[in-house]
Design brief:
- The complex is a heterotrimer of chains A (about 550), B (about 325) and C (about 300).
- Chain B is globular, with a radius of gyration of 24 Å.
- With about 325 residues, chain B is mostly helical.
- In chain B, about 80% of the residues lie in helices and about 0% in strands.
- Chain B starts with a helix and ends in a 6-residue tail after the last helix.
- Chain C is globular.
- The relative contact order of chain C is 0.13.
- The chains are: A alpha+beta (about 550), B mainly alpha (about 325), C mainly alpha (about 300).
- Chains in contact: A-B, A-C, B-C.
- The interface between A and C is medium-sized, with 29 and 24 residues.
Chain lengths: ~550, ~325, ~300
């Protein structure tokens, strides 16, 4: 799981006063079958989740329409954005006989799409085993390590699958529910085409089927008449449009296209929204909106394994130097949220700043204090350092970066910009190969373990700051072994308190999403994350 | 004589093509960022990297890869995309017509604007008309294309809630819609070329109009229009045709911005995306096709020139 | 040199003075040249004035601009043009007029550096290739042909991808185009001049190659170079803005007109159109001026190049 171009979603925001859902019609209505929905999404690099290059949100989003997983997240207007609870998908129930064993009972009568070569045959536990083996064994599958805690997967009988883990992993179900991970793929298609890269081989068990793919232009999805949930989906067709230019997208939206906001996850960038809001509401009356914090956060990574960043006072000074609210004022219309180590968007797991204790003070903008700390660490005249960076095609990010550089210069740190092209950046700085600092956004996960473990555990590829801290490493492993939700949450809070004092990464504030959807779309509840298909599955169009 | 001339030109073109193929092959590989690392995104295990590299054939020595690629290319096999594994030639075949059509349409627009304006400007040299026409034409090429395109798409949407057709429409499905859709981007591209072409037309016509045979025509009392159009333009047009010939390839390679803004799945965009993704076979394939095309066009232009002007065949 | 030019302009004007011209100082001759030029080619003169204004802006930016290019003015975020901020402010509260002035420096720097580098390379290649001929000429021409069979944008993008973003890299990438196209024209001009009889005479007298090249060939090629350079500058400014749009331009925080227009200018154009309008006007005006000036110079200095 990692970040690719334009996975960046920095939007402005409101005060973190919770969400505001403004329905236009409050009375319950009978769902209507039919209709075509128009969406803006992206060209996937190819259609094989497990092959090199398949690690892209562009593909993951598509798969939520056409493929199913063992379990999924609850969706709908009743779900508070930023919260996630597990629900059955292909597995109708599951048990956990001991800490390292999970037994899933699959639904009966689940059929693959009625497309050759799957031809609507029934899904069995063999398909799950097949998918798992393919997941682990495909060469070049960069996500393979996500299931490295799994020892083996067995088909106990036609509808029962047993997973045996090597060690207890409390987030296992979350991993299975993630759209980025274990979508169940079709064996016949993979064998017929040699791999699953071609769009013709894109066969799943999900609510829609891929009808056509026109590179650089769009895709068409049609309703799966044999979907295992009776009556769903309501929407007959989903027309996906590819549009790589923001001016063009804005114009399209004003002209009535795109039933959801065109940025991930169904939002419109606040800077754009503020400008077109009146026009949009005039042309598309009934347009609905909701606001909730974004789970994309940017941070400054530092070489904490060498001078001067190995001194915690220097890191704290940098945190004091950054005017987080000033950045939000300038690039996000003043609306944003402060992020501890787990982004504020993850409501269930992010610690409120007020509960951070000792470490809370380092989030305060205080250049004088920063200079004092630097002097105490022996850098009274500051020090030079390069900041590696790529633009991700986002003017908001470019503007934020300029402000960060200025903030650093104001406390005496002579920060020089080292801007790289995206490909060069992603194969060097993003994975820790930089000289002093790097600044940029991180992959938006929907649970804290990926944020924390991946970034703070020694040796992990996304440990950009080269952190090697046994205290935090121990806590990270402990929370993975704690099944009790309340106790796990306490450990995660403890981790965030500790990290606030350490400031291994200096996080900047995240914006607040403006989720927008057409007035005709009913029973839709926006959320962070890539599960577009899930959120639309039970939605219907009133037009 | 013509055949020998053309044969000579062809022979001269081959070394250039070879050198170009070398450039086409090595330049993308100089771009920092290992394509295999990019694909894996998270550098999992060193073993995985090497395995993927081997699978893609990228671990062999450079010259081996080059000759193998070149050998297959002359047989018409341009390999497969590193990312999508689709044959490069097939992809190019789908996109080249769009870019070509855009290029040709824009040149038509340019000619339609440039030639009449150039003729009038030359006929009325140094009068107010001349200045106005010239200034307007230059203004057309002074405004950045992406800015014009942005305004054209955004302003109607704000004012009237209307926007030009999105989503490329094939000509077989909807002729009118297709032409309408291509017209706007072609016009924006064409305006820039119109300026240069107009200048050229005007300049060439002025040159020709000073020639002796034209003065003879004046003294014979022929009407102005006859002199300018029949005697002047016919001779002045040769360099203009040459110019068109040299510009056509440039348009083909330079349409990436317009294609992005108007959502046209053309070849320029294909190449640009490939460069960003280090998709070497695609970069090489597209470049080779474009380069060959340019060489071909140059040959045709040379031939045309030779046909029209016997002096240069020798 | 100026004397030649004056003579040519006067011929163009149709001066009918029959008396021999008295000797004038160089300065006065140049002044007369300018005056006649302005009378004869008003648009060219106007463009020349614009160019000079740009040059002044880029050299004296610190004196001309009321604010620093990176200075965030408190309480002045996205304000429309006013007395305090002639062209308004941007989303980071910076004065746009100041940024335009500093942006001139970037455009001029990129433009002139590219022309200088590219033309130097083009002259070296073109003159030696045209003068010496033979196998050397063949090889050089094949290589130049090879580079020129690529569309310009493809070369620029590929080179920029290899080098990465940066002011110097933009200059290098654009120079390659200038060098290749320019070398062809200069080579042609060199060949034409080298066939002149006085060059043959010089050779017969035993003059060394270097002397011939520098004394006879280059001065006569200079007019060509100047005209190509002036018009080329316009193209380079446009190319820089296109590169900014594609993400390969001059990195911030230094303002370039191209990045102002294609970046935050486009993002905020509904709400603060002045953020995009002024850089757009600046670019268009600069390109227009360079082109018209080049045209006028060509008409005056070397009408043979009308077809170039």
């Amino acid at each position: 799981m990692s970040l690719t171009r334009r996975e960046l979603l920095i939007a402005g925001g409101l005060t973190a006063a919770g969400t505001v859902i403004a329905p236009s019609v409050a009375r319950a209505q009978q769902p209507k079958r039919g209709g075509t929905m128009s969406l803006r999404l992206w060209d996937p690099p190819h259609f094989d989740l497990h092959a090199a290059g398949g690690l892209s949100y562009k593909l993951h989003i598509l798969m939520t329409f056409t493929h199913s997983r063992l379990v999924r997240h609850k969706v709908g207007p009743s779900v508070v954005p930023g919260t996630f609870s597990i629900e059955p998908d292909l597995a109708e129930s599951w048990t956990q006989p001991n800490e390292t064993t999970y037994v899933f009972k699959l639904r009966r009568g689940v059929r693959w799409h009625a497309k050759a070569p799957a031809n609507g045959r029934e899904l069995t536990s063999d398909d799950v085993v097949y998918t798992y083996n393919r997941f682990i064994n495909t060469k070049g599958h960069a996500n393979a390590h996500m299931l490295k805690s799994v020892d083996k997967v067995e088909a106990v009988d036609k509808y029962t699958v047993r997973f045996t883990l090597k060690e207890p992993y409390a987030w296992f179900l979350e991993t299975l529910a993630s759209p980025m991970v274990v979508a169940i793929v079709n064996k016949e298609a993979s064998e017929k085409y040699g791999d699953l890269k071609k769009w013709e081989s894109f066969i799943g068990t999900g609510p829609w089927m891929l009808d056509s793919f026109r590179p650089n232009q769009g895709l068409t999805l049609v309703r799966n008449p044999n979907y295992f949930v009776q009556g769903l989906p309501y929407i007959d067709k989903v027309e996906i449009i590819v549009d790589e230019d923001n001016a063009s997208r804005t114009a399209s939206f004003l002209a009535g296209k795109f039933d959801l906001g065109w940025e991930n996850p169904g939002t419109i960038n606040r800077t754009d929204w503020v400008q077109i809001k009146d026009n949009a509401l005039r042309r598309r009356p009934g347009l609905k909106t909701a606001e909730f914090p974004a789970n994309v956060m940017s941070h400054i990574s530092m070489r904490t394994d060498q001078k001067p960043f190995n001194d915690v006072r220097v890191r704290r000074a940098i945190s004091h130097a950054i005017d987080r609210q000033g950045i939000i004022d300038a690039v996000a219309e003043g609306v944003g949220v402060t992020n501890p180590a787990v982004p504020a968007a993850l409501k269930d797991w992010s610690i409120p700043i007020s509960q951070l204790g000792e470490g809370a003070k380092y989030y305060k903008h205080d250049p004088a204090e920063a200079k004092k700390l630097l002097a105490a660490a022996g850098y009274a005249n500051g020090f030079p350092g390069t900041v590696c960076f790529t633009t991700y095609g986002s003017t908001v990010l470019i503007d934020s970066m300029q402000l960060v550089l200025k903030n650093l210069k104001d406390v005496g740190i002579d920060a020089k910009l080292e801007q790289k092209e995206y490909g060069a950046y992603i194969t060097s700085c993003f994975y820790g190969k930089f000289d002093a600092m790097t600044y940029g956004p991180q992959t938006p996960f929907v649970e804290p373990d990926s944020f924390l473990f991946g970034q703070y555990y020694p040796g992990e590829p996304r440990n950009q700051s080269h952190i090697n801290d046994p205290v935090v490493a121990d806590m990270l492993v402990r929370q993975r072994r704690t099944f009790d939700l309340a106790k796990r949450k306490e450990i995660i809070f403890e981790i965030q308190r500790y990290l606030a004092q350490q400031q291994y990464y200096v996080t900047t504030n995240s914006g607040v999403y403006v989720a927008v959807w057409d007035g005709a779309l009913q029973n839709y509840g926006p959320n962070v994350g890539y599960d577009y298909g899930g959120r639309l599955m039970a939605a219907w169009l009133n037009r | 004589m013509l055949r020998r001339y053309l044969a000579k030109r062809l022979v001269v073109a081959i070394p250039s093509l070879l050198i170009a193929s070398l450039i086409v092959f090595t330049l993308p590989r100089l771009i920092p960022g290992d394509v295999v690392a990019m694909m894996l995104e998270e550098k999992a295990y060193a073993k995985d990297l090497e395995e993927l590299r081997a699978k893609l054939g990228l671990n062999r020595p450079i010259y081996v890869q080059y000759f193998e690629w070149l050998g297959r290319a002359v047989q018409g096999d341009l390999g497969e995309s590193l990312w999508t594994r689709r044959p490069v030639l097939e992809e190019i075949g789908q996109r080249l017509p769009i870019t070509l059509e855009l290029a040709l349409l824009s040149l038509v627009v340019a000619i339609v604007i440039a030639v009449p304006v150039g003729v009038i400007a030359a006929a009325r040299q140094d009068t107010a008309q001349d200045y106005i026409f010239r200034s307007t034409a230059i203004l057309g090429l002074s405004v950045p294309g992406f800015w014009l395109a942005t305004l054209v798409i955004v302003l109607p949407a704000i004012w009237w809630g209307w926007r030009p057709l999105t989503g490329y429409v094939e000509i077989s499905k909807d002729v009118v819609g297709h032409i309408l859709q291509m017209l706007l981007p072609a016009a924006i591209l064409g305006v820039a070329f119109a300026a240069a072409m107009m200048r050229l037309t005007r300049g060439m016509l002025l040159e020709v109009l000073r020639q002796d045979y034209v003065r003879t025509a004046w003294s014979k009392g022929l009407r102005e229009r006859v002199i300018i159009l029949k005697h002047g333009l016919r001779n002045a047009i040769i360099p203009v045709i040459t110019y068109i010939g040299t510009q056509l390839p440039q348009v083909i390679g330079g349409t990436v911005i317009i294609e992005t803004i108007f959502g046209l799945p053309g070849m320029s965009r294909f190449l640009f995306d490939a460069i960003n993704q280090r998709d070497y076979p695609v970069i090489q394939g597209v470049n080779l096709v474009v380069v060959s095309f340019i060489v071909l066009v140059n040959l045709v232009v040379d031939a045309l020139y030779a046909v029209l002007d016997p002096r240069i065949r020798y | 040199m100026a004397g030649d030019a004056v003579a040519r302009v006067e011929t163009a004007v149709g001066s009918t003075r029959s008396a021999p011209r008295p000797e004038r100082s160089r300065g006065a001759a140049f002044g007369r040249f300018l005056w006649l030029f302005a009378r004869r080619k008003p648009i060219g003169a106007f463009s020349g004035a614009v160019v000079i204004a740009m040059l002044l802006m880029s050299v004296f930016a610190e004196q001309i601009a009321p604010y620093d290019y990176d200075e965030a003015v408190r309480g002045a975020r996205m304000k429309p043009p006013s007395a305090a901020h002639w062209l308004g402010t941007d989303n980071l509260s910076r004065d746009i007029w100041s940024r335009i002035v500093y942006g001139a420096r970037v455009s001029i720097t990129v433009g002139f550096a590219t022309i200088f580098l590219g033309t130097a390379a083009a002259t070296a290649l073109g003159v030696t290739s045209g003068y010496f001929g033979g196998k050397y000429d063949l090889v050089v021409q094949r290589i130049v042909d090879a580079w020129m069979s690529f569309p310009y944008l493809v070369i620029i993008l590929s080179v920029m991808a290899v080098l990465g973003p940066g002011l110097l890299n933009v200059i290098l990438a654009l120079s390659i185009i200038v060098a290749a196209t320019g070398s062809r024209v200069i080579r042609g001009a060199t060949i034409a001049i080298a066939q002149n009889q006085y060059v043959e005479a010089a050779r017969a007298m035993g003059c060394g190659h270097a002397r011939i090249v520098f004394r006879h060939i280059i001065p006569n090629v200079t007019a060509t170079i100047i005209i190509l350079a002036t018009i080329g500058l316009g193209g380079i400014i446009l190319a820089e803005s296109a590169l900014s749009f594609l993400g390969f331009g001059v990195p911030p925080p230094y303002p370039s007109w191209g990045s102002m227009l294609s970046g935050s200018g486009r993002t905020y154009m509904y709400r603060a159109p002045w953020m995009a309008v002024w850089p757009g006007v600046a670019i268009s005006l600069a390109v227009f001026a360079f082109n018209m000036l080049g045209d006028a110079l060509r008409d005056v200095l070397d009408p043979r190049l009308r077809g170039a």
